Structures are given as C-alpha cells and as structure tokens.
Amino acid sequence: MRDASPPPGLPGERQGDTSALGTDRPIGRRPAPRHLAGAREAGGTGAYRTRFDGPDANGGGNGADVDDGDDDGDHRWSDDPSVGRATRHSLGRTIIEWVAVVGCGVLIALTAQAFLVQAFWIPSPSMTPTLEVGDRVLVNKLSYRTHDVHRGDLVVFERPPQASNGEDGEIKDLIKRVVAVEGDTLEGRDGQVYVNGERIDEPYLVEGTPTDNLPRQEVPEDFVFVMGDNRTNSEDSRVFGPIEEDTIVGRAFVKVLPLSDLGWL
Known about the structure:
- Strands 1, 2, 3, 4, 9, 10, 11 and 12 form an eight-stranded antiparallel β-sheet that branches.
- It contains four helices and twelve strands; from the N terminus they run H-H-E-E-H-E-E-E-E-E-E-E-H-E-E-E.
- The longest helix is centred in the middle third of the chain and has 35 residues, at about 80-115.
- With about 260 residues, the chain is of the alpha+beta class.
C-alpha cells in the first residue's frame, strides 16, 4: 500500500535527495513562510523574527533557518518595533542622568562658594613676600563662626569706604594680617610693633622692614587691627583704622596658585 502521509518537516517544505551527498542534511530547502520562520526562531511563539547568516553551531554550512536572498554576511535583525523604542529610551535616560549629575555638581560648587570656601586672587603687592600679585588663595568662610579672630590670621574683608579702590576701581575685598584684636593696646616703637606692652615676633616680614605711622591706640570691641606684610607699601588699618569683625569674609588658609608655591598660610 502506498504511504500517502506527508513527509517529515514543516508544511510546504520539499525534501531534497540527500543520498548523493552522503549526509542527512537536506539540500534545496526553500525558505519557510515568514510567520512560521518566526515561530521556529522564537521557540514557536512567533513574537519576532531574526536572521543569522553564517556557520551553524556545528561549524558547517549555512545555519540560517530563514533566508530571503536580500543580504549577504553575518548579521542579525528584528522586525519587532519595541527594539528601537528600547534603544531610544536607553539613550534618553542616559542623557537625563548626565544632565542631573552636571546640575548637581554646579549646585554643590555654588553652595560651597557661598557658604564654605571661596578662591581669591591677590591684586596688589601689599602682602609680599607672603603673597605675590596674581597668587590665588582659598578662604574658609566658616572659620569665625566656630572661633574668634586670632592675631596673625590672614583675613579677607570687605573694602572699607576710606580705602582706595585700586586702579581699575573693581577691588571689593582686601586681604591683610591681623596684628591686634579687640581690647588690645598697640603702638610702634623704633619700627617695631608692641602689643600690650610687649614686642611681637613677626617672622613673615622681610628682615629689617620697619613699621611706621603707628601711634599708641586701643582696639575697640568687635574690631581688629590689620596690616600688610609689606609695611612700607600697604594701605591698612594705619590708614583706614580698625575694621569691624562683621566685615570679615573669612580666613585665608592655603595658597593654591602658583602650584610651585602651593602651601598653607
């Protein structure tokens, strides 16, 4: 009796003669319908269609289940539009994340400058040799919220109205060294500075630098007396008087530029 049952395989597949090649691999297979090819590639779900041309897992022949003859080379592709949407979503999320990181960095920097630490540059030679023109220093704005002003501190303060405003008229802050604090009595004798009757040691001055124009006086409450380290070329409290502690921006604690002269103050 003749076997009328269809040959093994998918509907519509034609079985080729394999005896001539001595292998069980069919030849002359034509592409299956696209919906069936998708089902085969996706484990029978038909959810998407992929293509891979190239050696199969066993290293021989063309491992493609579906080949429409349009392209050559090893590649994969999908008809599922969700793949493109996922890629666009990933790119958009990455951009948003970087914008958030940059924004947070800017916010932190502005907050730190407003309340914690701020950089200042030196516009004049009044603090040489400690600070030269063009040097950059960092100022701690919280110093005097936790402790009092000390003698010897380098402080940045708002320019007093009696002080000159520089050649370009844009100097808003000055930097000087605190020599005496509230309640101290100071005076100059033979080019030396005396505080409360005792000569103070000033190793930051160039040897032999005199301090002139310093009559005997007492520093008022909530004020400090400041002078530049370059005593012969400094406009300081000898000119505009003691400064109010409330006008002090902060304490300069480190020189950051030039890098060759990086160090604590």
